[in-house]
Amino acid sequence: MTSAVSGLSAALFRDEPEEYVVTAALGSNRDICFASKNGTTNKVEIVVGGVTAPLSVEVVGAKLTITSANTDGSATSTAAQIVDAVNSDVDAFALFEARLPPGTTGAGVTGAVSELTAHDGVHFAAIDMVDSGDHKTYQAAAGNRYWDEDTAASILVDASPVTSGFTVNYLRGSVTFETSQGASTITATGVKRSLLAFQKVFGLFDGKLKIDGKEIDTTSVDDAGWGSSIAGSRTWEMSASHFFYGGDIPISEMATKYLWKFYSVYSTTPYAIGWGSITSMSNLLANPNEAQKQDITVKGSGELYLE
Q1: For residues 144 and 9, what is the distance between their CA atoms, to the nearest angstrom?
Q2: At residue 68, does pLDDT exceed 90?
Q3: How far, in Å, CA of 97 to CA of 93, rounded?
Q4: CA–CA separation, 10 vs 229, rounded Å?
Q5: pTM tops 0.85
């Protein structure tokens, strides 16, 4: 069984593999991602003084303090200006590389951000899970999905931790119980991957998303001579005959298993996310400013989640 969408144009984004700090999904082009250069001890804080002053950065030990430009206590530094200030300062850049999240301009004023420590993901605590309707499967809302599978999620039923009788789908951010939970309140605590920390790697053109299901023969004497089967293990891959590579991420890193997300250029086409790695890619042309008329394939390692 094979399902394919061909002629697809999409952008391919990779999850940040290093420890990082992201602002709290401020929106309005105000968010920033700070990718740590040397582990989880680095800290960053954005402060706003009470006296009119210019934008500045300061490093003391493993902490980066950014003082937003302000006018009488009102912040005026945009996310883009803060990114430029951090990356152009030798000491600050030794701790963090700052960048704007995908699809944002950085034109918004970020404002004050409390001290944050770099982690391999973003911690979340006691988020409410939404009942799918059967009182067994509960789903985290958009923005609280893509849980880190390397950190066990803590599931609570009516504020009491439970350790068995359920399974967790980390990619979807969902939990399925073996028995009905009735009117209970289900919450979860753990670590998630943040879309604010994703990086654009490729623009894919003339692409194809393929999902294969291995058939399992279930033919028996009860089928009166007809064959029957069910879908077994499934695999997915995204391939394209043209792609654009900006050169920001070394090609040598692409073969590693990452969390990838596809954003279709067609608003009516759903996007997808899943763990995978680049398994084949033809030679790159010399000019990185032009689309590569070569083949590329990203093969999945686990579920492809179509939101």
Answers
A1: 27
A2: yes
A3: 6
A4: 34
A5: no
